[in-house]
Amino acid sequence: MLEVSGLRAGYGPVEVLRGLDMAVSGGEIVAVLGANGVGKTTLNKVLSGVLPATAGAIRFDGSAITGASPDAIVSAGLIHVPEGRKIFPNMSVRENLELGSYRRGKPRRRANLERVFETFPRLRERIRQFAGTLSGGEQQMLAIGRGMMAEPRLLILDEPSLGLSPLLVEEMFALIRRLNADGLPILLVEQNVVQSLEIASRAFILENGIFAMHGAAADMRDDPELRRVYLGL
Ligand code: ATP
Protein backbone atom coordinates (compact mmCIF):
# COMPACT_ATOMS: atom_id res chain seq x y z
CA MET A 1 0.00 0.00 0.00
CA LEU A 2 2.86 2.33 0.91
CA GLU A 3 6.13 1.70 -0.90
CA VAL A 4 9.36 3.58 -0.35
CA SER A 5 12.35 2.91 -2.57
CA GLY A 6 15.85 4.37 -2.57
CA LEU A 7 14.61 7.29 -0.49
CA ARG A 8 17.13 10.01 0.31
CA ALA A 9 16.58 13.32 2.07
CA GLY A 10 18.32 15.81 4.31
CA TYR A 11 18.88 19.42 5.13
CA GLY A 12 21.16 21.32 2.76
CA PRO A 13 24.48 19.52 2.59
CA VAL A 14 23.55 17.16 5.44
CA GLU A 15 22.09 13.91 4.16
CA VAL A 16 19.96 12.30 6.90
CA LEU A 17 18.15 9.52 5.00
CA ARG A 18 20.62 7.63 2.85
CA GLY A 19 18.61 5.23 0.74
CA LEU A 20 15.59 3.64 2.42
CA ASP A 21 13.50 0.76 1.03
CA MET A 22 10.37 -0.22 2.84
CA ALA A 23 6.74 -1.22 2.29
CA VAL A 24 3.53 -1.40 4.30
CA SER A 25 0.76 -3.68 3.00
CA GLY A 26 -2.95 -3.43 3.76
CA GLY A 27 -3.81 -4.63 7.26
CA GLU A 28 -0.28 -4.50 8.66
CA ILE A 29 1.35 -2.68 11.53
CA VAL A 30 4.91 -1.93 10.44
CA ALA A 31 7.34 -0.39 12.93
CA VAL A 32 10.25 1.91 12.13
CA LEU A 33 12.43 1.87 15.22
CA GLY A 34 15.44 3.91 16.15
CA ALA A 35 17.16 5.94 18.84
CA ASN A 36 17.15 9.75 19.11
CA GLY A 37 18.44 11.62 16.11
CA VAL A 38 18.60 8.74 13.62
CA GLY A 39 16.13 10.35 11.22
CA LYS A 40 12.65 9.18 12.27
CA THR A 41 11.18 12.68 12.20
CA THR A 42 12.89 13.38 8.89
CA LEU A 43 11.29 10.25 7.39
CA ASN A 44 7.89 11.39 8.66
CA LYS A 45 8.40 14.81 7.12
CA VAL A 46 9.22 13.34 3.74
CA LEU A 47 6.28 10.91 3.84
CA SER A 48 3.89 13.75 4.65
CA GLY A 49 5.25 15.99 1.93
CA VAL A 50 6.70 18.67 4.20
CA LEU A 51 10.32 17.96 3.23
CA PRO A 52 11.23 17.04 -0.36
CA ALA A 53 13.09 13.81 -1.08
CA THR A 54 16.41 14.34 -2.85
CA ALA A 55 16.21 10.91 -4.50
CA GLY A 56 14.04 7.82 -4.61
CA ALA A 57 10.32 7.26 -4.86
CA ILE A 58 7.24 6.99 -2.64
CA ARG A 59 4.13 5.23 -3.89
CA PHE A 60 0.81 5.11 -2.10
CA ASP A 61 -1.96 2.86 -3.30
CA GLY A 62 -0.22 2.40 -6.63
CA SER A 63 0.32 6.11 -7.39
CA ALA A 64 3.57 8.05 -7.11
CA ILE A 65 3.35 10.67 -4.37
CA THR A 66 7.00 11.71 -4.44
CA GLY A 67 6.99 15.51 -4.53
CA ALA A 68 3.23 15.74 -3.89
CA SER A 69 1.98 18.52 -1.60
CA PRO A 70 0.98 17.74 1.99
CA ASP A 71 -2.58 18.56 0.96
CA ALA A 72 -2.60 16.04 -1.88
CA ILE A 73 -1.07 13.39 0.39
CA VAL A 74 -3.77 13.94 3.03
CA SER A 75 -6.46 13.78 0.33
CA ALA A 76 -5.07 10.43 -0.79
CA GLY A 77 -5.64 9.16 2.77
CA LEU A 78 -2.05 8.97 4.01
CA ILE A 79 -2.49 10.63 7.38
CA HIS A 80 0.34 11.56 9.69
CA VAL A 81 -0.32 11.86 13.43
CA PRO A 82 2.38 13.99 15.01
CA GLU A 83 3.32 13.30 18.61
CA GLY A 84 0.66 14.44 21.06
CA ARG A 85 2.10 17.79 21.97
CA LYS A 86 1.39 19.14 18.51
CA ILE A 87 -2.31 19.76 19.10
CA PHE A 88 -3.66 23.31 19.25
CA PRO A 89 -3.62 24.11 22.98
CA ASN A 90 -5.90 27.17 22.84
CA MET A 91 -8.65 25.44 20.92
CA SER A 92 -11.23 23.07 22.38
CA VAL A 93 -11.16 19.32 21.95
CA ARG A 94 -14.02 19.58 19.46
CA GLU A 95 -12.30 22.31 17.41
CA ASN A 96 -9.08 20.33 17.27
CA LEU A 97 -10.96 17.27 16.06
CA GLU A 98 -13.00 19.17 13.49
CA LEU A 99 -9.80 20.52 11.95
CA GLY A 100 -8.96 16.95 11.02
CA SER A 101 -12.11 16.80 8.87
CA TYR A 102 -12.13 20.38 7.61
CA ARG A 103 -12.39 19.33 3.98
CA ARG A 104 -15.46 17.13 4.54
CA GLY A 105 -19.05 18.35 4.58
CA LYS A 106 -20.93 18.67 7.86
CA PRO A 107 -22.64 15.23 7.85
CA ARG A 108 -19.33 13.42 7.24
CA ARG A 109 -17.64 15.52 9.91
CA ARG A 110 -20.36 14.66 12.39
CA ALA A 111 -20.16 10.94 11.62
CA ASN A 112 -16.37 11.00 11.95
CA LEU A 113 -16.64 12.83 15.26
CA GLU A 114 -19.05 10.19 16.56
CA ARG A 115 -16.64 7.43 15.54
CA VAL A 116 -13.75 9.15 17.36
CA PHE A 117 -15.87 9.56 20.50
CA GLU A 118 -16.77 5.87 20.39
CA THR A 119 -13.06 5.06 20.34
CA PHE A 120 -12.16 7.70 22.94
CA PRO A 121 -15.08 8.24 25.36
CA ARG A 122 -12.70 10.36 27.44
CA LEU A 123 -12.58 12.96 24.67
CA ARG A 124 -16.37 13.18 24.53
CA GLU A 125 -16.41 14.00 28.25
CA ARG A 126 -13.93 16.81 27.57
CA ILE A 127 -15.39 18.12 24.35
CA ARG A 128 -15.35 21.81 25.37
CA GLN A 129 -12.10 21.74 27.32
CA PHE A 130 -9.07 23.58 25.96
CA ALA A 131 -6.75 20.98 24.48
CA GLY A 132 -3.75 22.47 26.30
CA THR A 133 -5.31 21.54 29.64
CA LEU A 134 -5.67 17.83 28.77
CA SER A 135 -3.29 15.31 30.36
CA GLY A 136 -0.42 13.98 28.24
CA GLY A 137 -2.30 10.76 27.51
CA GLU A 138 -5.46 12.63 26.57
CA GLN A 139 -3.49 14.93 24.24
CA GLN A 140 -2.07 11.84 22.56
CA MET A 141 -5.60 10.46 22.14
CA LEU A 142 -6.67 13.81 20.68
CA ALA A 143 -3.81 13.75 18.17
CA ILE A 144 -4.84 10.25 17.04
CA GLY A 145 -8.52 11.24 17.05
CA ARG A 146 -7.74 14.18 14.79
CA GLY A 147 -5.96 11.78 12.42
CA MET A 148 -9.03 9.51 12.39
CA MET A 149 -11.23 12.50 11.51
CA ALA A 150 -9.35 12.72 8.20
CA GLU A 151 -10.65 9.27 7.14
CA PRO A 152 -7.21 7.65 6.90
CA ARG A 153 -6.43 4.76 4.59
CA LEU A 154 -3.04 4.44 6.28
CA LEU A 155 -2.05 6.08 9.56
CA ILE A 156 1.52 7.12 10.35
CA LEU A 157 1.97 7.44 14.11
CA ASP A 158 4.93 9.49 15.30
CA GLU A 159 6.12 8.30 18.73
CA PRO A 160 2.64 7.74 20.21
CA SER A 161 4.15 6.50 23.48
CA LEU A 162 6.33 9.57 24.02
CA GLY A 163 6.00 11.07 27.47
CA LEU A 164 3.36 8.61 28.69
CA SER A 165 3.48 6.71 31.97
CA PRO A 166 4.07 2.93 31.67
CA LEU A 167 0.37 2.18 32.19
CA LEU A 168 -0.69 4.67 29.53
CA VAL A 169 1.94 3.29 27.16
CA GLU A 170 0.30 -0.14 27.56
CA GLU A 171 -3.11 1.41 26.82
CA MET A 172 -1.77 3.28 23.82
CA PHE A 173 -0.29 0.14 22.26
CA ALA A 174 -3.52 -1.77 22.94
CA LEU A 175 -5.41 1.00 21.19
CA ILE A 176 -3.09 0.90 18.17
CA ARG A 177 -3.64 -2.83 17.92
CA ARG A 178 -7.41 -2.26 18.07
CA LEU A 179 -7.37 0.39 15.34
CA ASN A 180 -5.41 -2.02 13.18
CA ALA A 181 -7.77 -4.92 13.96
CA ASP A 182 -10.59 -2.68 12.69
CA GLY A 183 -8.80 -2.70 9.32
CA LEU A 184 -6.46 0.31 9.41
CA PRO A 185 -2.86 -0.24 8.26
CA ILE A 186 -0.38 1.57 10.50
CA LEU A 187 3.20 2.75 10.19
CA LEU A 188 4.44 3.06 13.74
CA VAL A 189 7.54 5.23 14.20
CA GLU A 190 8.84 4.62 17.69
CA GLN A 191 11.75 4.49 20.10
CA ASN A 192 9.98 1.95 22.25
CA VAL A 193 11.45 -1.22 20.73
CA VAL A 194 10.00 -3.84 23.09
CA GLN A 195 6.34 -2.88 22.88
CA SER A 196 6.47 -1.95 19.20
CA LEU A 197 7.83 -5.40 18.31
CA GLU A 198 4.94 -6.93 20.24
CA ILE A 199 2.24 -5.33 18.11
CA ALA A 200 3.99 -4.98 14.73
CA SER A 201 4.04 -7.68 12.08
CA ARG A 202 7.33 -6.38 10.62
CA ALA A 203 9.93 -3.89 11.73
CA PHE A 204 12.76 -1.79 10.33
CA ILE A 205 15.63 -0.54 12.47
CA LEU A 206 16.84 2.89 11.41
CA GLU A 207 20.48 3.68 12.15
CA ASN A 208 22.38 6.60 10.68
CA GLY A 209 19.94 7.06 7.85
CA ILE A 210 19.76 3.46 6.64
CA PHE A 211 17.73 0.43 7.69
CA ALA A 212 20.39 -1.58 9.50
CA MET A 213 18.02 -4.49 10.06
CA HIS A 214 14.52 -5.54 9.06
CA GLY A 215 12.30 -8.56 9.25
CA ALA A 216 9.34 -10.19 10.94
CA ALA A 217 8.81 -8.61 14.34
CA ALA A 218 8.53 -12.06 15.96
CA ASP A 219 12.03 -13.00 14.71
CA MET A 220 13.47 -9.66 15.73
CA ARG A 221 12.21 -10.05 19.28
CA ASP A 222 14.50 -13.08 19.58
CA ASP A 223 17.49 -11.65 17.71
CA PRO A 224 20.49 -11.69 20.08
CA GLU A 225 22.22 -8.74 18.38
CA LEU A 226 19.11 -6.59 18.54
CA ARG A 227 18.48 -7.55 22.16
CA ARG A 228 22.05 -6.63 23.01
CA VAL A 229 22.12 -3.26 21.21
CA TYR A 230 18.57 -2.02 21.83
CA LEU A 231 17.42 -3.74 24.94
CA GLY A 232 20.70 -4.02 26.81
CA LEU A 233 20.00 -7.71 27.40
P1 ATP B 1 14.27 12.17 17.82
O1 ATP B 1 13.72 10.84 18.18
O2 ATP B 1 15.29 12.66 18.81
O3 ATP B 1 13.25 13.21 17.48
P2 ATP B 1 14.78 11.58 15.04
O4 ATP B 1 15.16 10.18 14.76
O5 ATP B 1 13.39 11.98 14.78
O6 ATP B 1 15.19 11.95 16.51
P3 ATP B 1 15.51 13.66 13.17
O7 ATP B 1 14.76 14.76 13.84
O8 ATP B 1 14.96 13.12 11.92
O9 ATP B 1 15.79 12.48 14.18
O10 ATP B 1 16.98 14.18 12.91
C1 ATP B 1 17.96 13.44 12.23
C2 ATP B 1 19.21 14.30 12.06
O11 ATP B 1 18.91 15.43 11.22
C3 ATP B 1 19.75 14.87 13.35
O12 ATP B 1 21.15 14.77 13.31
C4 ATP B 1 19.30 16.31 13.34
O13 ATP B 1 20.23 17.12 14.01
C5 ATP B 1 19.28 16.62 11.86
N1 ATP B 1 18.28 17.67 11.54
C6 ATP B 1 16.95 17.61 11.84
N2 ATP B 1 16.32 18.71 11.39
C7 ATP B 1 17.26 19.50 10.82
C8 ATP B 1 17.25 20.79 10.18
N3 ATP B 1 16.11 21.48 10.02
N4 ATP B 1 18.42 21.26 9.70
C9 ATP B 1 19.57 20.56 9.84
N5 ATP B 1 19.65 19.35 10.42
C10 ATP B 1 18.52 18.81 10.92
From TrEMBL:
The keyword Mitochondrion does not apply. Gene3D superfamilies: P-loop containing nucleotide triphosphate hydrolases. One of its GO terms (molecular function) is ATP binding. Pfam families: ABC_tran. PROSITE patterns: ABC_TRANSPORTER_1 (PS00211), ABC_TRANSPORTER_2 (PS50893). Signal peptide: none annotated. InterPro entries: AAA+_ATPase, ABC_transporter-like_ATP-bd, ABC_transporter-like_CS, BCAA_Transport_ATP-bd_LivF, P-loop_NTPase. Keywords: Amino-acid transport, ATP-binding, Nucleotide-binding, Transport. The keyword Hydrolase does not apply. Residues 2-233 form the ABC transporter domain. Belongs to the ABC transporter superfamily. This is ABC transporter ATP-binding protein. It comes from Roseomonas haemaphysalidis.
